[in-house]
Specification:
The complex is a heterodimer of chains A (193) and B (462). With 193 residues, chain A is of the alpha/beta class. Chain A has helices at residues 2-12, 33-43, 54-64, 86-89, 121-124, 141-148, and strands spanning 47-51, 69-70, 94-98, 101-103, 108-112, 127-133, 137-138, 155-159, 164-165, 173-174, 181-187. Chain B has three domains: 1-38 and 295-384, Fumarate Reductase Iron-sulfur Protein, Chain B, domain 2; 40-285, Rossmann fold; 392-452, no CATH class. Chain B has a six-stranded parallel beta sheet, sandwiched between helices. Chain B has a four-stranded mixed beta sheet with strand order 8-5-6-9. The mean pLDDT of chain B is 94. Classes of the chains: A alpha/beta (193), B alpha/beta (462). Chains A and B meet through α1, α5, α6, β8 and β9 of A and α2, α3, α4, α8 and α10 of B.
Chain lengths: 193, 462
């Protein structure tokens, strides 16, 4: 009933068709995507650790993130099925996830529900560690959505830095509701593969 | 009934706070400028956004139907609400049918417009706003004063006292980090308890039925992924055709709103979680009428970034509450009279028409042009106050006659110089309430020009 009413009313007020513009192309040349990504990530309160070899990566994970819940490569995916209770997820301190690709212009990383078994995980943990291959960084959001190519899956999100708020007198505070800390492990040489 | 000027007067009584408000919002405007300058092709991007929105509005029916089809394919349930009341009923029905009682909600200007919170509270549903700013004003029982920073008018000392009373935080601790941590703990509990999570919608994608929501705090996601039932409330104008179009808007939104590159979370909801429900309520509430008004149609392009508020010299110095409408500032002053032209007749006049709002608008709405247009329409509708009407009439007569204009100028100049203060700054001179008239010069510009540049004048043509 409401549906028809609304659609009819729009129909009645039909306006002249306006053409959809040609896709936007921005000619940003000579951008070093990796260094821009790192620069902006630090600006927005994220941490960045770079690794060059598998040994370096393992050493880092072993030393700095010993007690972290590592959800990369389906390692522990079975442990947190989507039906897992939210109260038990609440105890998660540090979670390590695979990031699919990064966006240089805003320091964000794309993940979707193929990267985590329960959608609450990237948000409910105190600290979020995203592993990113440095070859997987695109210039801007146009390239980002081109790369996604409509394969968002059931849920997907660009995460850019730790959760934050400035709602109290514009004073910036990290850790509003989501992760208080965001670390990106940026690996060169394709070692995440 | 008080009008915008009276309420602005109240806001300005606290000089220190008003100055802070003005300065802080201007700072955000400057952050926005820096961002805009850093993006190559920013102006083309704005033009692109404007055209995509115009196109979407011109094919809105097709896109709404396409969106519905796609969303249903994804497993979402679609509801249509022609009025505010219908939205409230639909949301309540979903809550009741699922025997739910606890609801969390992230920021949604639409539900604010429709009065969803008071409606649900009357029905005995506990609804908690989860954006920190919104939670503050919910506890304070006030409406938001800004669409992006709802508690921009509240000082940390007040928040500290409020949290002490309601959330039992330490008395006299004004530290924003401490206060935010207090709210985090309090709201974490609410997220875990909630049966239903409600969100607003930034963009809805026709080609795949996706709902896109942008937050910095992560509150929309905490709510949506923790609660078994998610409800997204969107106005019909939120539709854009393709995922690729999103790039244009996501690049513009946070940069225009707060001077960030992007919000912390840009979430795309397509399918319900396993054994969860996903509802989308598509709301009209006067929007389809607005499409028919050619002069005002463009206001439906608005993506609610708040840039026009941050830049507006009137908004910055009068505060969001002085507008008395759910959306304050320049864009709100265009939208408000559509819902009630009598009640909000003063809002299109609460502007200097400087055009700064139109300059910063990421979707290029001709905001000040529409404010000017409203002034004429309101005058034709005959809803203006008798005083305003007669002043306009007299001004019109004077300004269209050279003789009258010269003569009245002479009189005014003489009066300002010779009249006692009391007589000039009288009750009828509203303009002079907080302002000083400039010192009057002896001669008019015309006289000065004729003397200096006119025929036979000093520098004039001989």
């Amino acid at each position: 009933m409401d549906r028809n009413k609304i659609l009819l009313n729009i129909q009645r007020n039909k306006i002249k068709p306006v053409k959809l513009p040609e896709p936007f192309y921005s000619a940003e040349k000579g951008v070093n995507k990796v260094s821009l990504f790192k620069e902006i990530l630090l600006q927005i309160g994220g941490d960045c650790i770079e690794v060059n070899t598998t040994e370096e990566l393992n050493f880092l994970l072993h030393n700095n993130f010993k007690n972290a819940t590592d959800l990369r490569r389906n390692k522990l995916l079975e442990k947190f099925p989507s039906s897992y209770s939210k109260e038990s997820l609440e105890g998660l301190k540090t979670v390590i996830l695979e990031g699919q690709f990064g966006v240089a212009e805003n320091g964000s990383i794309w993940v979707n529900d193929s990267n985590f078994p329960n959608r609450l995980i990237p948000f409910i943990s105190e600290e979020l560690v995203l592993c990113l291959d440095s070859t997987q960084i695109v210039r801007n959001m146009h390239d980002a959505y081109f790369k996604i190519n409509n394969a968002i899956s059931g849920f997907g999100v660009f995460i850019s830095g730790p959760s934050k708020t400035s709602d109290i007198e514009q004073h910036l505070v990290y850790g509003a509701h989501g992760a208080k800390k965001l670390v990106v492990i940026l690996s060169h040489e394709n070692i995440l593969k | 009934m008080t009008n915008h000027a009276h309420r602005a007067g109240r806001f300005l009584k606290n000089e220190e706070r008003a100055a802070w408000h003005d300065k802080t919002l201007w700072m955000i405007r400057q952050k926005r400028d820096k961002m805009a300058l850093d993006v190559p092709g920013w102006e083309e991007l704005r033009e692109q956004a404007s055209q995509i929105k115009r196109h979407s509005l011109s094919k809105l029916n097709d896109y709404l139907v396409q969106f519905e089809e796609q969303a249903i394919n994804n497993g979402a349930q679609i509801h249509w609400a022609s009025t505010a009341g219908r939205l409230n009923e639909i949301v309540y029905r979903i809550i009741k049918e699922n025997h739910a009682s606890k609801v969390v909600k992230s920021k949604s200007m639409l539900t604010e417009e429709c009065g969803l919170n008071p409606f649900l509270e009357k029905k005995g549903v506990k609804i908690i706003d989860t954006d920190l700013g919104e939670r503050i004003i919910q506890l304070k029982q006030e409406p938001p004063s800004h669409i992006v920073m709802p508690a921009i008018h509240v000082k940390k000392e007040e928040i500290s006292e409020l949290f002490h009373q309601k959330l039992h935080s330490e008395k006299g601790n004004y530290d924003p980090t401490y206060l935010t941590a207090t709210a985090r703990l309090h709201l974490r509990q609410k997220f875990l308890e909630a049966d239903v999570a409600i969100t607003g919608v930034n963009f809805a994608i026709a080609e795949n039925g996706a709902i896109v929501v942008c937050t910095n705090e992560g509150n929309a996601d905490m709510g949506v992924h923790a609660a078994p039932i998610q409800i997204h409330c969107m106005g019909i104008e939120k539709i854009i055709p393709r995922t690729s179009d999103l790039a244009v808007f996501i690049r513009l939104l946070a940069r225009s709103a707060t001077g960030q590159h992007i919000t912390t979370y840009t979430s795309h909801y397509l399918k319900p979680k396993t054994s969860g429900q996903m509802h989308i309520v598509i709301v009209d509430n006067g929007r389809s009428e607005l499409i028919g008004k050619e002069d005002y149609r463009d206001s439906l392009k608005c993506i609610r970034c708040g840039a026009c508020m941050n830049t507006c010299p009137v908004y910055r110095r009068s505060g969001g509450h002085s507008y008395h409408y759910v959306i304050p500032g320049p864009i709100g002053s265009i939208l408000a009279p559509h819902s009630n032209s009598k009640k909000y007749k003063d809002l299109p006049f609460a502007s200097s028409l400087c055009g700064s709002c139109s300059d910063v608008c990421p979707v290029k709405i001709n905001i000040h042009g529409q404010l000017y247009r409203w002034r004429q329409d309101l005058s034709q509708k005959g809803v203006l106050s008798p005083i305003k009407k007669s002043i306009m009439k007299i001004s019109g007569k004077i300004l269209t006659s050279t003789k009258m204009y010269d003569w009245s100028g002479r009189i005014a100049r003489w009066c300002i110089e010779h009249f006692p203060r009391k007589l000039i700054y009288n009750r009828l001179n509203i303009w002079g309430k907080e302002r000083e008239l400039p010192e009057a010069s002896r001669e008019s510009f015309k006289q000065w020009y004729n003397k200096n540049y006119g025929e036979g004048g000093k520098n004039g043509q001989k």
